[in-house]
Amino acid sequence: MILGSRLEMLLEPIRNLTVALAPSVDISELPSPLRAPRVTHVRLTDEPAELGEPGAVVLVARDRVELRRVVGACEGLPHSMRVGCVLLEASVPPLTTGRPAWPRITSMMAQTSPVCYALLEFESALPAGAVVADLARRLTPSHLMSGKWPSLGFRREAPDSWVPGDALAVVASHEQLDDTSGDYPPDAVLAQSPLDAPPATSARGAIVHHVLGPLAGELSVGRALTWADLEAGGHEAARSLELDGPLGLGPIDETLVNPHGFIRTPHDTAATLEPGRGPDFLRIACPGRTVEIRTDPGVNDSTVARLRQLVGVHVRWQGASGPHAYCRVVASLALAGVPLTCDPAPAWASALLHPSLLEAITGDVDLDDPLAREMHSIRARRAAYAHHGTQAFRRAVAARTGTQRTFSPLVSVLLPTRRPEMLEFALRQVGRQRGVDVELVLATHGFEPPETVIDQAAERHGVIVRKVSAPRERPFGELLNDAARAARGDVLLKMDDDDWYGRDFVADLLMARAYSGADIVGTPPEFNYIEPLDVTVRRKDVSEKFRSVVAGGTMMISREAFTSVGGFRRMTRYVDAGLLRAVLAAGGSVYRSHGHGYLLRRTGAGHTWDPGLGYFVSRARTLQQWRGFSPSPLLGPDDVDTPSATRQAGC
Predict the structure, then answer these.
(1) Judging by beta carbons within 10 Å of its beta carbon (0-12, 13-18, 19+), is residue 619 exposed, middle or buried?
(2) How far is CA 435 from its chain centroid?
(3) Contact, 249 vs 331, CB < 8 A?
(4) What CA dihedral angle connects 504, 506, 508 and 511, to 10 degrees?
């Protein structure tokens, strides 16, 4: 394999080159310039040696998923003026423009083929691990890359449990993790112990730290088992799996393995997850090609992209090196939104995969029905994110160790209304949200509802309500800014007073916000109820994509982005479009999640944007159409909110 003449020419004069190998990479796989006798090879799973200041440090990882996974383990890499990253199985090189406190970048080279790499030269030496962390951070639109709390420590020899995208993670030896003399030891330390040996003793649990107070003891989970381990270990192996559960499986990196790019109407038939060419591989035979999955580091974004045109994947529970490796692939495919079906789950799968995920993929579904197929995918991806994603992993560690955990953000719903008759309906839509922390900022435009009405409604629906009001002549944008100033939440969500929202609407947007890193997330106006015609239409709008527009009644925006662009513009109409335009012009990003939790209502008049009813029922824009009120089954509206026209018609 040849790296390309430009990089070879740059590396040739360097006589002291250090190449750091990620856990899945073997020296035999390296491009020839990185296998030369003058090269010093170090494994991230080994204790770092004292290397001085090499002429260059180059990290070699399998793919983007593994690059994020090894961020914590790169902390011990030496300083150097030249730092590079080679990804053996990627098509886009990781890039950075540097950090304000860094030395100036004097040269940057990148190439996508025949192998993907980036090499940077700085004015003076800096820690190579810091550069690797920034390369990993730039893989997503999010400004910050943080693992959140608790702070975690891992043994260097057990990379299966390393958490991705966390530069604060401590990856070290057992002795180093037990040394708590520093100011910032990890909150919790995870260790893997073999079946035939008790967990190694740790002094952490008996220490009262001068900064953190009493420290949690080491949390021991069983190592990843092979099929031979499972067979020979018998009852002890089964018990180990049951005790560890999803925690023992390790986290799935939702930042790169997620529903982005989901295709609503694929053109390929369903395929089967099969044993691969060895214990470290699984394969999916697609029409005209075979997609191979290396179980370490696991499913990556490139693999998912190659599976998007499949109607679904059937899981047979056969292959890979053992139950952990196999279940990580299944959980990853589910989190990516690949529609899965399966044979009855064996005991080892039931022990490692959360019951809600197994329930989601074992249910009967007609994958040839696009609507049923997408709902099936959504149920599975919700379960995988809630129980197998990185934040779910941290929550599980915090629960087992009693350490600090990061709570979900408080969502401030900005709900403008100029219709007193819609107040109770709108409050019900906010009050039915589940699994999230929500407050409501009610912004009345041209009327003042009685305080007793608001208090009674808030108590009835279990929602904290704050209220702002403005005369009707005040611009709509100013009213919304008043609501944003009154809000106390971490993120802001604009909802409309006449649209229907599913119980998981806010939770789904928070999930999309977590995996996309976008400044604004929302849904397309995919499902529409045309009230004068008593017709429900499903439009052809794409979802699970970065786009410039989302439905105005679904816009969730970070406080940082909202403040950065100055909030809503002082407009009487098109305030949603104005905010979207401002965020995009500032360099922000907008992401569309699925539309199954939202139903837009169109009446005959009164909308700030009104192209006419014909726009919503035209054949060119319509994917499906139903007589009467027919939202997505995932929305599940309350009976009281069924439109009167549909009730009278008996639909």
Answers:
(1) exposed
(2) 17
(3) yes
(4) -140
The one-letter code for the residue type at 601 is R
Residue 251's closest CA among 381, 160, 185, 378?
A: 160
Segments of the chain scoring below 70 in pLDDT: 1-10, 195-202, 604-618, 620, 645-651
Q: What share of the chain is helix, strand, coil (3-state, %, to 5)?
A: 35, 25, 45
pTM: 0.94
Query: What pLDDT does 435 receive?
Result: 94
Q: Name the helix (H) or strand (E) containing 624.
A: strand 622-627
| Contact (CB, 8 A) for 154 and 397 | no
Q: Give pLDDT tens digits for 412-464.
A: 999 999 999 999 999 999 999 999 999 999 999 999 888 888 888 888 888 88
Q: Which two tokens stand for residue 358?
A: 């197994």
Which phi and psi (to 5°) does residue 248 adopt? -70, -20
pLDDT at 649: 58
Domain spanning 5-137, CATH class: alpha beta
* Phi then psi dihedrals of residue 9, to 5 deg: -65, -35
Domain 410-649 has CATH 3.90.550.10: yes
Give the integer Cα–Cα distance in Å for 648 and 73. 65
The residues, any chain, with a CB within 8 Å of residue 425's CB and separated by 6 or more, are 497, 498, 641
Annotated domain spans of the chain: 5-137, 152-232, 271-388, 410-649
Identify each DSSP E strand in 200-350 by its residue range. Answer: 208-209, 213-214, 219-222, 271-275, 281-286, 289-294, 313-315, 340-342
